[in-house]
Structures are given as C-alpha cells and as structure tokens.
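Readers of this paper often ask what the protein records in our data store actually look like. This encoding replaces a full spatial description with a residue-level series of whole-number codes. For reference, a complete record is included directly beneath this paragraph.
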Amino acid sequence: MSGVIRVGLRNYAVRRIAQAIVIIIGISLIGFVLIRLVPANPGALLAGRHATPEQMEAAERELGLDKPLPTQYLIFAGKFFQGDFGNSLSTKRPILSDIGKYLPASIELIVISLIIAFLIGVPLGILSSSKKDTATDHGSRVFAIAGVSLASFWLAMVFQIIFSSNLGILPLEGRISMDVIVNYPIQRVTGFNLVDALITRNWIGFADTVKHLILPSLALAAYPIGMVTRMTRTKMIEVLNEDYICAARASGLPEKTILFRYAFKPSAGPLLTISGLTFAYMLTSTALVEFVFSWPGLGRYLVSALFVGDYPAIMGVTLLAATAYVFVNLAVDLLQTVVDPRIKY
C-alpha cells in the first residue's frame, strides 16, 4: 500500500512540476510584454545620461533591442532557463549576484514575521473559536479584520512615529546600527544577521539586529496575523462540531486537551498552506515595508529598479518570486499528506 502511495505522490509531483514550468513560461512572457510597453529606454540607462547617439545605438545592440520582439523574448527565455538573469543596468552586476546579496535580508524579515504571525494568530484563533459569539470572539475578529485591512506601509510609518520618533526606544530604519557596523561588525557567513551573530557569538550585533527587526517584522506580520487568526477560528469551529469532539467532552476530558490535541491538529493543514503561500507572496510584497525602513532587502532592490527602469532586474526578481510561489505551493501540497494522512494524491 505504501508503494502505491509513493507512486501516486511521484506522479502528482511530476504533473505539478510540468504545470509549474508552463506557468513560469507564461509569466515570463506576460512580464516581458508588459516591460516592453513601459515608455522607457533601457539603452539610455546603460549608455549613461550624456551618451551620444552612437553610444545609444551600441547600448541597444548590446541589450538586443535592435532585434524583433519574438527574438528578444526567445533570447531572454533561453538565458533565464539556463540560470542567466543577465546584468542589472543600474548596478552593472549580474542580477543573480544582486539577488544573492539582498535576498537573505528579506528572508530573515519574512521568517520572523511569519513566526510572529503564528505565535499571535494561532492562540487567538483557538481562543476565539472556543468562545464563539462572545465579546472575546468579536474582539479577536475585529483585530483579525484590522490586520488584513490595514496597509503594511501605513502601519510601518505609524510604528516609526510612535516607537522611534516619540518614544525613542527602537531604531527608525536600517538593518543594523552604524556604531555596531564599525565597532562590532557581524561576520558574514550565511547572510542572515541573526544566524551569523549567533555563529560568531557576536551578542552585541545579535541584540542590535533584534532591535532593528521588531518594527518592520510587526508591520509585515499584520496581514498574516489576520489570515492565521481567521483561518484557525474557522477550521476550529468546524472541527469542534464533529462527533468525536462531542464524545471527548462527554468523557470528561479537559477542554485544553480537546482544543490543542484533538481539534487543532486537523486544523493545521490549511495553516500550512497559508504559511507557504504567504512566504512566497512576501518575497515581493515586502517592498513598501523595506522601503519605509530602508531595509536592504529584495523588495527595496525591486523598488529601486522600478524607479530607474532597470527592466532586467525587474524581470529577474519577478520570475524569482513566481518560481518560488509555484514550487512552495507544490511543497506545501506534498507536506499536507504528512500533516493530514487522509489526503491522497
């Protein structure tokens, strides 16, 4: 029986990977066309502000802009699927190198935000479901709706005004303080400041990194907190109406045991889906929060590329996010079978 299940999972994974490739090709085509519709001249950015017509023409030839659009797309797609994203027009470096430089900061921020979202959202959703239609339930629902509705960049600025400008207890911006960079620099090992500070036992750098993470991670966590709270509440209410829960209550089991051991586990599947898809979505949705806090992550890199019309960098980040979204979705679907053995592919 287990062999049949493994074959089913393998066939399902192969089908999903094939679908993912088709989706990524479609996204690359749509993105390529939309970028070309933008009234900007990438050749001018490459050649420089004071370039001569001859230099402009040479820059356009270097970028392949003198070729027909279908040919340009085929060249771009061929390089992309070989792992060559090209060079950024603004930084003059390979785009993959830039992504490798900025991505760890974004992932660190996203992971901390998701941890905060689950630490707050799951208990709040469980509490809300256990006290359905009470003041506690209504309050948690209002809190969840507010988290989903409020713009993360607006919350970021509010947090800056309250905790940085008025109270002065948390840093206004950046990933680490300048005095720590000068006196207690974190040695780069993985690119994640928290991990690198722990590995090198740089406790001052670790504490400073935590301080800088608090405000942006809270601002970014607002949306997933609302999603996790609402999803947990909905699934818990559904499970709490099952017959085996009624039997557990009739047998005199403690309410905490029923909630956390018997009711929450069947509700964990949708939360796994939310965490995976939210992680992939946040790779680019962090842009405004990173911009507000001057956070040196992938989102800020994307915003800078948009400002100057650096279309190779825009396409590189867009396709990276699309690829991550598709394959994280696949990984989450496969992990569902571990969380909920009733699921069969």
The mean pLDDT is 81.
